Amino acid sequence: MSKYLLNKFLYTVDRDPELVERYRNDPQGTVSWWEAERANVILNVPEMERSTWLTFTEAEREALATHDYVTLFGLGCHNFLLLTLFIALFERDYDEPLGFQREFAARLSHWTLPYPDIST
Amino acid sequence: MATIAAVIASTHHPFYYRASTSSGADRPPFADEWVAKIESFRDTLTRAEPDILVMVGSDHFHQLWLDNMPQFLIGKAPFYDGNFYNEEREFGLPRMRLRGHEELSSYLLRAGIDAGFDLAFSNELRIDHSITCPLITLRPQVDLPIVPIYTNIFAPPLPQPRRFVELGTTIRRLVAAWPSDQRVAIIGTGHLSLELGGPRQFGPHGPDPEFDRKAVEWIASADLDGALAEVSLESLWLPGNATHGFMDFMLMMAVAGQSVQADYVDSLDLFHTMEAYFTWYPKGEGQ
Description:
The structure holds two protein chains of two kinds. By secondary structure, chain A is mainly alpha-helical. Chain A contains seven helices and no strands. Chain A is 56% helix and 0% strand. In chain A, 29% of the residues are buried. Chain B is an alpha/beta fold. Helices cover 34% and strands 20% of the residues of chain B. Chain B has nine helices and ten strands. Chain B is globular and about 50 Å long. The two termini of chain B are 21 Å apart. The chains are: A mainly alpha, B alpha/beta. Chain A binds chain B through residues 4, 7-8, 11, 14-15, 17, 42-44, 73, 78-84, 87-88, 98, 101-102, 104-106, 108-111, 113-115, 118-120, and chain B through 60-62, 65-68, 84-86, 89-90, 154-157, 196-203, 237-238, 241-242, 271.
């Protein structure tokens, strides 16, 4: 399991306005491109010095490619990164203020403590 | 020696800026009460007539990341830009630029390391809403130089609560011993019970009002013994999955001094989380 890499995806997409839109409109393609081109780039290191070992599991890839934040929560993604990016993706589709945030909570309502471990 | 003009602890609700600047149909019903409370709170800093602000907060995965995560970090730079694209996007926060106080940063780094804290440092730090929000509420003219101090309340493994307390005690002692005639306010923000990205988020109140009631009592009386007896890294998951930010309040209780009653206490029960505001005036400053 690669919680770190899931978080790295959420983090690097969330901080880039173009990537947020690309992930909203084409999740499958964005995840494939990102895993091939960006997953191994160390963020404060020149790209030619990239890592060689970071890949998603099939379940992780599928959860990202289907915007499945319930599964991503269960996989131990960092709760703040998950919420922040998914607000950016979907809040705009809801008429009521906090409509998306409340649906997010409701869809996780089967979870009781302890929540999945977010340690990396 | 420097004067500690005020010690201030509060929550840092990122929606305050938007709520307080909105009008007409966009203005939420609680905005006027919230603004009145913030203006009253702001007076407690203004009265202290500070020259420098030491600002304790926590980066929310903006500049600091899991490939290189410091536990405690002090900024040392002549300027700090403030707020990030995703804070503009989600909260409507403005871009800001603040002056730094490099001399006090250097002093705190050297003396803090020598006191047993292996502090990380940054010479180019963009600060996020954990520090810009209290500036917006307490010093919106942002005319004073700052020293930012970041703690990791966010990315496990975290330091133990007692370590936050020890750092707070150390900051207080070091600032008081700084050879300077400047008046320093020490300001820190944290969380009461808070859930973000979980099933208890964005309810009508904070996720654990009973924890909030106890926490406000602990903070108002700087009851570190009481807080340390009940709070652990494990227990802080219970009131809400973002409640580890309470450790920044514990740090500030230690800055205020064990069992020193706050001179100003206020709170506001908002949707989603409770807001809380505390000011201490060491040695009768500002009263």
